[in-house]
């Protein structure tokens, strides 16, 4: 195979332009802090060339597998994390090092070039005296150690996965059975304003997939073709719901096992967890925004899945295809409305849940009292 079948050779990163502002430390010593970051298309110093693999997979070591299996690999044994010096590496090097360094050092031999070092070679190249140059050095693919190798397929140290349980209060036999929230309060919550309970709900909604006929953040007055019996009509009216988050941290060994189609530890032994939501009912930003909660109130309980990346281009090292730089993309790359949501739709984190509710009643404060 050609190398460009698996390696993207001509990627581009638009590095952010950072402005700095002075700041005085507690000791009175001036220091500088980033004053702002601006992403922009630039034909100058803010463009960088990036070379990266086209696919993501861990590189594991199967050399410890022994008989009776004569073949070593994923389905014949267990792969472990490669130790230091083991694994697969991608490396850049000079195509013709002897010719390049000889020309850059004014006819010096390769041994003399090695004695003077790369730094001397670069200074000779940049002063314009040589007719043969090194593209590797001109573009800045260099390190102080001289090592341009990068290890491929390294497994992350950990990964946090999440799932949420949603509890929606509703009243049967109502035209709109849920407890409505004004759209302005939702818009305020998106900006971090309003009641803490509404802000908490809105922030969590952005992390999980909700049924379209209940997703009033995504479908803000847009026609979504609901079922004939839907109470929402052509748009989704905001309403109150409680979103209880649950998290689990997968270790590096868990991730190595999952890549080999083996269960992580959390799949073999259940763990208890707790999620608590509290809010008051005595302020102007009442979460329910109604009077008394009637005795016929019921609860709708269901789970929602964490949102995964929908676009391959959002996870590549190359920012040339990112949404921030749409003006520089030759062809349209539109995210789908719905996707497979891998891997979160393919496992369940919360298997059993018990929901409890309680109300604390306090005497009102006296004017001027504590």
Give your account of this protein's structure.
With 370 residues, this protein is α+β, with helices and mostly antiparallel strands. Among the domains are: 94-147, no CATH class; 158-308, no CATH class. 16% of the residues lie in helices and 19% in strands. It contains eight helices and ten strands. The chain has a four-stranded antiparallel sheet. It has a two-stranded antiparallel sheet with strand order 1-4. Strands 2-3 form a two-stranded antiparallel ribbon. A hairpin with a 5-residue loop joins strand 2 (17-24) and strand 3 (30-38). Helix 5 packs across helix 6 (196-205). The chain is extended and about 90 Å long. The N and C termini lie far apart (77 Å). The model is unreliable at 115-128, 222-233 and 325-331 (pLDDT under 50).
Spatial gap, N to C terminus: 77 Å
Number of strand segments = 10
Order of helices and strands: EEEEEHHHHEEHHEEHHE
Task: Give the C-alpha Rg.
Answer: 29 Å
Strands of the widest sheet, in order across it, are 8-10-7-9
In round numbers, the mean pLDDT is: 76
Strand percentage: 15-25%
Poorly predicted tracts of residues? 115-128, 222-233, 325-331
The helix fraction, in percent, is 10-25%
Shape descriptor:
extended
Notable characteristics:
alpha+beta, two-stranded antiparallel ribbon, 8 helices, extended, 370 residues, four-stranded antiparallel β-sheet
């Amino acid at each position: 195979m050609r190398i460009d079948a698996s390696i993207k050779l001509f990627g581009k990163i638009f590095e952010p332009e950072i402005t700095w502002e002075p700041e005085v430390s507690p000791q009175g010593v001036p220091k500088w802090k980033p004053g702002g970051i601006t992403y922009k298309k630039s034909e100058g110093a803010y463009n960088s060339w990036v070379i990266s693999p086209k696919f993501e997979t861990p590189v594991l070591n199967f050399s410890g597998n022994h008989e009776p299996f004569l073949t070593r690999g994923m389905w014949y044994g267990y792969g472990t994390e490669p130790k230091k010096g083991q694994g697969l590496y991608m490396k850049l090097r000079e195509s013709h090092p002897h010719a390049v360094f000889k020309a850059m050092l004014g006819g010096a031999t390769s041994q003399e070039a090695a004695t003077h070092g790369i730094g001397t070679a670069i200074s000779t190249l940049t002063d314009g005296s040589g007719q043969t140059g090194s593209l590797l050095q001109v573009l800045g693919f260099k390190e102080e150690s001289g090592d341009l190798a990068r290890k491929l397929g390294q497994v992350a140290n950990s990964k946090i996965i999440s799932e949420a349980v949603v509890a929606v209060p509703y009243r049967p036999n109502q035209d709109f059975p849920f407890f409505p929230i004004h759209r302005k309060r939702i818009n305020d919550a998106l900006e971090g304003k309003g009641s803490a309970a509404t802000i908490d709900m809105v922030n969590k909604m952005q992390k999980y997939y909700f049924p379209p006929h209940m997703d009033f953040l995504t479908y803000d007055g847009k026609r979504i073709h609901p079922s004939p019996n839907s109470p929402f009509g052509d748009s989704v009216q905001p309403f109150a719901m409680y979103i209880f988050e649950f998290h689990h941290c997968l270790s590096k060994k868990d991730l190595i096992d999952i890549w080999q189609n083996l269960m992580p530890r959390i799949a073999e032994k259940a763990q208890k967890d707790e999620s608590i939501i509290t809010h008051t009912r005595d302020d102007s930003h009442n979460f329910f925004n109604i009077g008394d909660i009637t005795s016929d109130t019921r609860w709708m309980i269901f789970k929602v899945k964490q949102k995964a990346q929908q676009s391959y281009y959002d996870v590549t090292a190359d920012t040339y295809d990112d949404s921030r730089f749409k003006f520089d993309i030759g062809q349209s790359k539109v995210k789908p409305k719905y996707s497979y949501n891998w891997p979160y739709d393919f496992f369940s984190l919360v298997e059993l849940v018990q929901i409890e509710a309680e109300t604390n009643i306090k005497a009102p404060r006296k004017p001027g009292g504590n």
